[in-house]
Amino acid sequence: xxxxxxxxxxLAFLALPEQQQQSxxxxxxxxxxxxxxxxxxxxxxDNMLVEGIRGAGKSEWWLELQDPDRRxxxxxxxxxxxxxxxxxxxxxxxxxxxxxxxKKTLSNLLKNTDAQDVWQTIVAWNILHEEGFGLANDSxxxxxxxxxxxxxxxxxHKLVQIDKQLDQQKKKHIVLFDALDRTADDWxxxxxxxxxxxxxxxxxxxxxxxxxxxxxRPDMLEDPYVYSFPDGSKxxxxxxxxxxxxxxxxxxxxxxxxxxxQGGKEFRDxxxxxxxxxxxxxDLGVWMIPEEMRRDETVQRKIFHALAGEWMGTDAxxxxxxxxxxxxxxxxxxxxxPRSFLAALREAATDNLIKDQKYPLSYQAIKKGVQKxxxxxxxxxxxxxxxxxxxxxxxxxxxxxxxxxxIESTWKQHDAMDKLKNIEDAGVRLPxxxxxxxxxxxxxxxxxxGIFEIMRxxxxxxxxxxxxxxxxxxxxxxxxxx
Length: 482
Prior knowledge:
This protein is an alpha/beta fold. Helix content is 48%, strand content 7%.
């Protein structure tokens, strides 16, 4: 029997976001704002290249860092981020801004301008602003680029002077870049733009106070072309990842439960009375997670098992909820999206049909939560990689692991290659990056994305977070969505 009041905690779980808002759309509610300790290094100004899977927090940080109050809160919560005395502006993102050109404008600019010149101009515009740059705000981007090229020495000197002033004042200016997959509709243009941006980031290494911070998906860094320039390997080797390990995922859960409008007080009180975990309130009214609940896996496990029971079945053979849930939500690299994690738990709390329920969550409901999270993850894939639907939908009903030739045979039966080659005619941007290499190349694209996993015997496996939503089966696994 749980030490937590079942109904009150179910309400707290139901307050979890079913599916968080579109990344970079609006800031997260301050009460649920959590800074993973593992993200501190990624946020440090000198770390220019930050990679993360969909939902890891790239667009969220791009947005939050532009807000002075949020930067200060991050600095309070995690001083190692070094965000004190920082100014941030956006050099590219998914929202419209006068700070940078949109995708269509970028496409036109690339016809006559090198990508490196485009990004240099954007960075200079962000740092110098209208007055220092010497052009009106409503000037076209082609005019701004010509002006920057013609007056390069003069504008570069201004950048150097501002860099010195910022350094003397112990300040920094960071220009933020996100949603780079939205810069172009074809791989060549996208890779040219990414390569140019990485070159500009390397150039600004020589400055002391002006920095770029580039948020990017891991698959966009797979092609060596994007760092095939002198010292390009240095940029890649110094990249930092936005990771969500088990400790951080459950700490995020505590942040939501501890600050829930209903059930939050009960959660905090039981944590204090039963587990000796005292919550404290921040000046902003946010309840702060006790240190042991963030750092100690043993404490986390005890608390979660008091909420969900000790086993994923009638005995220990099926596993333990604390490890089972993140294991079944990870891609083939073991990376878990926090959105998937929270969505699974919220869905689990909607299942209150079990008689005499002893815990706020049941193991049966957690399995249903994984089904829900998988459906959400599949929908997210459709947004970013529309071509995946052509490849995975025909596999519905298959059982994994299975030999790749069985998958390739199914693709051939459904004319997948012809459909992929005509994908641009259907208005779908960015086909598989290795399409010209045939089905073997496509297989590697799916491996890079964490959707396919090549086992030691060569068979192809698919992690539950994708398998379930796409309707494939696996012996002893979570039942696929029908």
